[in-house]
Input
Amino acid sequence: MPVESGSSGAARQAKQKRKSHSLSIRRTNSTEQERSGLQRDLLEGQSSDNLDSFMRMEDTKLPLSLRTNLLDLFSQIEREFENLYLENIELRREIESLNDRLAADGQTVEGADLAKGALKTKASHSTSQLSQKLKTTYKASTSKPRSNSCHARVVGGSRNFNVPSWELWGGDSWIVSSFKATTTRAVCQLVKEYVGHRDGIWDLSITRTQPVVLGTASADHTAMLWSIETGKCLLKYLGHQGSVNSIKFHPTEQMALTASGDQTAHIWRYMVQLPTPQPVADTAQTPCEDDVDFSDKDDADGEVEGPNDCPSVRVPTTTLRSHQGVVIAADWLVGGKQVVTASWDRAANLYDVETSELVHSLTGHDQELTHCCTHPNQRLVVTSSRDTTFRLWDFRDPSIHSVNVFQGHTDTVTSAVFTVGDNVVSGSDDRTVKVWDLKNMRSPIATIRTDSAVNRISVSVNQKIIALPHDNRQVRLFDMSGVRLARLPRSNRQGHRRMVCCSAWCEDNSTCNLFTCGFDRQAIGWNINIPALLQEK
Output
C-alpha cells in the first residue's frame, strides 16, 4: 500500500542517520514474541529490513505526513542526546587528562588556579549548553546528587535520585566549582551544638540587647533561649498550643515575638542570667569544602532528653489573634511599636504592640504566606508566598500604603529579607536566590543557582554575605554578586543530618558568628573566618 511504502522509506532514512542506537515503536496489537524479537534486532542494529517489517505490522491510523514528521523528530532527539553524551565523555576525558598531568607534577585539580585556563572556559560553556538543552527538553531541573547510590532524604516532599556515574549534576555549577581551591585559608569551624528540642527547629534568632542569647522555635510547641558560649538552655517558653514557627527579639527591650501553628502570635518577656563560660575545646579546623557524606545514618531519630532544669515561661504578655490559619512568621517593625505576622490564611497583619489591635490586614497573595521580614531602618515589610511571588509593603507615608509585587521565581518563595542598604534577597524552592535593588526591582541584579531548595536565608550586616540553608542538609555562603564563597562542612560526625531550615548571622559575637538550625532537632553555632573568606574570593 502507498502508506506502507512511504513509511518504509521514512524509516530507512531515519535508520541511516542513527549510529549505535535505534528507535523501536511498540504497539499493543503485536504479539509479545514478535515484539521482543524485533526490538532486540533493532537495538542491535542488525538489519534495516527488520524495521520495515515492524512498521508494516502496525495497524495505524496516522497519516503519512504525520508519521514522517514523528520519525524525523525522534531522529533529531536521538542525535541531540547522542551529541550531548559525546560532549560529556570528551569533557570528562579532558578533566582526567588534566588530573594526570597535575598528579605527575605533585599537584591536584582542587589546588590549581584555573581561573584563566582554557579548560575551565570550555568546561563551563559545554556544561552550560548541556544543562540548557536538557532543561529545554524535560522542562525540569537537571540537578542530581554526585553519588551513584545517593539517597537524599529530605523532609517536605523532596525526591530520591539514583544517578549514573557519568552524568553531570547541578547544571553548570559542579565542574567549575570543583576547581575551587580547597586549600583556602578561609575556615568554617563548627563551634557549638544546641541540643534539647524534641522536634525539628524551624527558626532561630539572636537577641539585639544584652545579654546576647540565641533563641530557637521548634515544632515541639516550645521556644528556647540558649547561652551561645556554653550551649546551655537558659529559658523555655511553653505558651503555645502548636508548633512554634518563628522567633524574633525586640530591638531595645527583653521581649520575644513568636508565631505558632495555633493561629496566634505571642509577645512575652524574658529574664536570663548567663552562666560562667567554659573554655572552648580546641577542635581541629575543617576546610569549608569538606566532602559530603550522603549516607542515611541519622543520629537524631532517637529520643533527645530536653533540659529538665531549664526555667520556663507559660503566659504571654500579649496574644495577637485574628488569623484564620497557621501563623508562619512574625517580625518587629523598626522602633518595636508594631509587629507584622504572616499566615497560611494568605494575609499578613499589622498590629499595635501596646493595644494588640489590628492596624492593617495586608491581602493580595493568592496562596499561603511563608515568611515576612521588616527593614532594619525603615517602615518597609516584605512578605513571601507559595504563589511564587513576594510583595513589598511601604508604610513610610502614613497616608499612603503602597505595595509592589515581584515575580522573579518559578516556585514557592520561602523567604525574602532586607539588607542594611537598598537590597532585598529572596530564596525559593526553585533552587535559586535572587538579589534585588529596591530602587529598580524590575529584574534581579544577581541570581544564584543551586542544587537544592533554599529555606530561610540571612544576610550579614557588615559584609553582606548570604547564608543559604538547603533541603539537602547543606549550608552555602555567597556574596551579593552571586559568587560562591564556601560550603559549611558536613559529614556523619558534624553538621546537620536533616533539612536545614534557617540561618542567622551574629557578626559581633567572638565565639559564633553564624547559626543554623534544622529538622535534626539541633541548632549549630559556627565560626566563619570572614576576612580570610573574602580574601580568597
